[in-house]
């Protein structure tokens, strides 16, 4: 994972509450199998609205923003990590909001994106500052936001997640390296105390008849369609 | 030792280790794998050349992208076909059971987990899908995760987590006629808001919860995420055991007896303390309808579309205006006068056999309004076969409903079941977000009985007034 230390950038103001992950990344693009290149579908409906002014992320200087300032309950709803991949692909590394959807919040940390929860008053100041189009600096080490007028806002990040982001930690690698013995021991213990939680071979035989013919393979002919 | 809640006990039983920074490594017993959140996780595993730790802990099924008619033909959408076949390839490669869409065990992950007995009390269960909280109805610690976390489960069978706060929702009283548990959860979300449960694991308790069937408990727990909480649980009891006994993957014989004894001990200790308590008298509720574009924007069917000008909080007012503009509604209009175009009965919230029975009872002997296109999408093939054995399909068809195959369908509109821009739908699903059922589509959330009533009336309607 890409480490995160500090970002200096203009911040895009998006003063709306409840921007859920369906709005951030509409479901029909979930059929794509990759995590790269999803930025072009970010906020798709908002950015392709007929007879509406251009969406904030399509307007200079905010089209190059790496910080997004938005309203309460950002990223609620679906667990789709595509919402974070799309933000990151677009270039957003920091999201400031009053609150976040929980799964979205967790997904951010796994993709080098820093979600910062601010109290209402600080949020309002950050929003106003973003509107000026002048750059602000978000520093994870010191847990501060330096607004364009020099004012400093403080925030707090879970210490584990802060360290993981600063180091660009590979969490899976760390668990495999440090905790494998503890996991082995847990499994051995659980097999004694709650054996039903381990699906044994005889129980899994229930699935043995599953047919192995390709499911939903590419259509070979569309002759029948219509 | 101090008193523990249900959540504390399942957490304790899955603790691999505590780290010094207050996070913990939690063991995950079971993982449901679907096509949308797994391809990137499998790709990560392959790229890092990592093994799958425990193939027997996963079951794979494609539910989001599959069509619900013409299953005999290849998928009409090339992208969907690629996504579904990718899941099967990955499952085969890593030795995970894969349930094809034409199989009698197919269905939405959150419907088949319990049906198969894959979901068990006291287990930890995850899926790359936010409605994994559904399985908490069994007293499992079940929660939705992102694709990167799926990858972590594949490789380590654990997740590094911080324990949630505990919140108890106590439901008192008895449900009045025409009012269902869907109305209860909508009322709860309307009360505490879509952020009300953030940071908390919810336990549903109280006499009204004890009286609920497993299907109803699943509907209740399912929408915990719409209240902001990843976790919603109900302590296992005789209702739970009766549902599970004899399910294909449930324990048997002496192991069943041992498991049941362990499950009985999971109930929250009488003197356990919750960080937050909420009470709701279900006896005072009416059937509810969502009017906006977030689940908390819902009201009794007897109400009118609210007026943003009467809302003092400016952010809420702006939110309401945006919702009403999107929904094409004017303040003051009676909810039961709003005409609809489509009806969707299905999803992991309300696509189970009891839901279909409830809707069929309303529909029997009546006809869908000529202006309405209505579909029933059973949550699983098992539900579909059971409904057909009971003759429910004939009731729906005779009334003018389409009877479909299992899948997520119009809950998420990733297949060809979707609303056209501006179309208005009475839906038993769980999310009324902008574009959720198709770009520009307008969703009203409600119970299966209310959706059936709307289909007949051609407008949002109070099921209690249908003579
Ligand atoms: S039915 Fe809807 S909410 Fe449930 S898993 Fe499928 S898409 Fe998600």
Automatic annotation (TrEMBL), chain A:
Statement: the UniProt record of this protein carries the keyword Chloroplast: no
Keywords: Amino-acid biosynthesis, Branched-chain amino acid biosynthesis, Leucine biosynthesis, Lyase
One annotated GO molecular function: 3-isopropylmalate dehydratase activity
Cellular component terms per the entry's GO annotation: 3-isopropylmalate dehydratase complex
InterPro entries: 3-IsopropMal_deHydase_ssu, Aconitase/3IPM_dehydase_swvl, AconitaseA/IPMdHydase_ssu_swvl, IPMI_Swivel, LeuD
Function of the protein: Catalyzes the isomerization between 2-isopropylmalate and 3-isopropylmalate, via the formation of 2-isopropylmaleate.
Family stated for the protein in its record: Belongs to the LeuD family. LeuD type 1 subfamily.
This protein's name: 3-isopropylmalate dehydratase small subunit
Organism annotation: Prosthecomicrobium pneumaticum
From TrEMBL, chain B:
InterPro entries: 3-IsopropMal_deHydase_lsu, Acnase/IPM_dHydase_lsu_aba_1/3, Acoase/IPM_deHydtase_lsu_aba, Aconitase_4Fe-4S_BS, Aconitase_4Fe-4S_dom, IPM_dehydratase_rel_enz, IPMI_cat
Organism: Prosthecomicrobium pneumaticum
Names of the cofactor(s): [4Fe-4S] cluster
GO terms, molecular function: 3-isopropylmalate dehydratase activity; 4 iron, 4 sulfur cluster binding; metal ion binding
Pathways involved: Amino-acid biosynthesis; L-leucine biosynthesis; L-leucine from 3-methyl-2-oxobutanoate: step 2/4
Matches recorded under NCBIfam families: leuC (TIGR00170), PRK05478.1 (NF004016), PRK12466.1 (NF009116)
Cross-referenced PANTHER family: 3-ISOPROPYLMALATE DEHYDRATASE, HOMOACONITASE, MITOCHONDRIAL-RELATED
Cofactor annotation comment: Binds 1 [4Fe-4S] cluster per subunit.
Matching Gene3D superfamilies: Aconitase, domain 3
PROSITE patterns attached to this UniProt entry: ACONITASE_1, ACONITASE_2
Residues noted as binding [4Fe-4S] cluster in the record, renumbered to the chain: 348, 408, 411
Domain Aconitase/3-isopropylmalate dehydratase large subunit alpha/beta/alpha: 8-458
Name of this protein: 3-isopropylmalate dehydratase large subunit
Subunit-level organization: Heterodimer of LeuC and LeuD.
Species lineage: Bacteria, Pseudomonadati, Pseudomonadota, Alphaproteobacteria, Hyphomicrobiales
Keywords associated with the record: 4Fe-4S, Amino-acid biosynthesis, Branched-chain amino acid biosynthesis, Iron, Iron-sulfur, Leucine biosynthesis, Lyase, Metal-binding
Catalysed reactions, as listed in the record: (2R,3S)-3-isopropylmalate = (2S)-2-isopropylmalate
GO biological process, one term: L-leucine biosynthetic process
EC number(s) given by UniProt: 4.2.1.33
Family: Belongs to the aconitase/IPM isomerase family. LeuC type 1 subfamily.
Chain's role: Catalyzes the isomerization between 2-isopropylmalate and 3-isopropylmalate, via the formation of 2-isopropylmaleate.
């Amino acid at each position: 994972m890409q480490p995160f230390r500090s970002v200096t950038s203009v911040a895009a103001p998006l003063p709306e509450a409840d921007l859920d992950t369906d709005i951030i990344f509409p479901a029909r693009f979930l059929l794509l199998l990759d995590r790269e290149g999803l930025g072009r579908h970010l906020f798709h409906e908002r950015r392709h609205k007929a007879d509406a002014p251009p969406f904030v992320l399509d307007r200079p200087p905010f089209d190059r923003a790496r910080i997004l300032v938005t309203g309460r309950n950002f990223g609620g709803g679906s667990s789709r990590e595509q919402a974070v991949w799309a933000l990151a692909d677009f270039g957003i590394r920091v999201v400031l909001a009053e609150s976040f959807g929980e799964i979205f919040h967790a997904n951010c940390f796994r993709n080098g994106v820093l979600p910062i929860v601010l109290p209402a008053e600080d949020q309002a100041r950050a929003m106003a500052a973003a509107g000026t189009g002048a750059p602000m600096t978000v520093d994870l080490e010191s847990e501060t936001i330096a607004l364009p007028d020099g004012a400093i806002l403080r925030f707090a990040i879970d210490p584990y997640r802060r360290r993981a982001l600063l180091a660009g930690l590979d969490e899976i690698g760390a668990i495999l390296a440090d905790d494998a013995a503890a996991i082995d021991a847990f499994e051995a213990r659980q097999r004694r105390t709650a054996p039903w939680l381990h699906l044994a071979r005889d129980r899994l035989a229930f699935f043995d008849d599953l047919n192995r013919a390709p499911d939903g393979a590419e259509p070979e002919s569309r002759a029948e369609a219509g | 030792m101090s008193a523990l809640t249900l959540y504390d006990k399942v957490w304790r039983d899955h603790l691999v280790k505590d780290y010094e920074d207050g996070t913990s490594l939690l063991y995950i017993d079971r993982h449901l794998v679907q096509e949308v959140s797994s391809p990137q996780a499998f790709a990560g595993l392959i790229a890092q050349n990592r093994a799958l730790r425990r193939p027997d802990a996963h079951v794979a099924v494609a539910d989001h992208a599959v069509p619900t008619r013409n299953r005999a033909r290849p998928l009409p959408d090339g992208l969907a076909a690629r996504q579904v076949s990718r899941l099967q390839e990955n499952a085969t490669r890593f030795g995970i059971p894969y349930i094809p869409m034409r199989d009698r065990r197919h269905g939405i992950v959150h419907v088949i987990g319990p049906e198969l007995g894959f979901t068990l009390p006291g287990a930890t269960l995850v899926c790359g899908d936010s409605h994994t909280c559904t399985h908490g109805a069994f007293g499992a610690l079940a929660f939705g995760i992102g694709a990167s976390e799926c990858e972590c489960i594949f490789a380590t069978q654990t997740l590094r987590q911080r324990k949630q706060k505990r919140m108890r929702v106590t439901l008192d009283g008895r449900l009045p006629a025409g009012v269902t548990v869907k109305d209860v959860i909508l009322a709860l979300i309307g009360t505490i808001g879509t952020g009300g449960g953030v940071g908390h694991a919810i336990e549903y308790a109280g006499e009204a919860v004890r009286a609920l069937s497993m299907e109803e408990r699943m509907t209740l727990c399912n929408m915990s995420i719409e209240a902001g909480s990843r976790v919603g649980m109900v302590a296992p009891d005789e209702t739970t055991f009766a549902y599970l006994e004899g399910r294909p993957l449930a324990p048997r014989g002496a192991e069943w007896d041992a498991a049941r004894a362990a499950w009985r001990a999971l109930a929250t200790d009488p003197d356990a303390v919750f960080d937050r308590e909420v009470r709701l008298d279900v006896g005072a509720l009416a059937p509810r309808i969502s009017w906006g574009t977030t689940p908390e924007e819902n009201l009794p069917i007897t109400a009118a579309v609210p007026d943003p000008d009467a809302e003092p909080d400016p952010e809420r007012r702006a939110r309401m205006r945006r919702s009403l503009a999107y929904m094409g509604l004017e303040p003051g209009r009676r909810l039961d006068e709003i005409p609809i175009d489509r009806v969707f009965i299905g999803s992991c919230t309300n696509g189970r056999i009891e839901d279909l029975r409830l809707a069929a009872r309303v529909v029997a002997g009546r006809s869908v309004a000529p202006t309405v296109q209505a579909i029933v999408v059973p949550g699983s093939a098992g539900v579909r076969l059971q409904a057909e054995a009971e003759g429910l399909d004939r009731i729906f068809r005779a009334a003018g409903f389409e009877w479909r195959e299992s899948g997520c369908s119009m809950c998420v509109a990733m297949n060809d079941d979707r609303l056209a821009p501006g179309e208005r739908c009475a839906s038993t699903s769980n999310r009324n977000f902008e574009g959720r059922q198709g770009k520009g589509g307008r969703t009203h959330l409600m119970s299966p009985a209310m959706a059936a009533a709307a289909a007949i009336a051609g407008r949002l309607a109070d099921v209690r007034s249908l003579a």
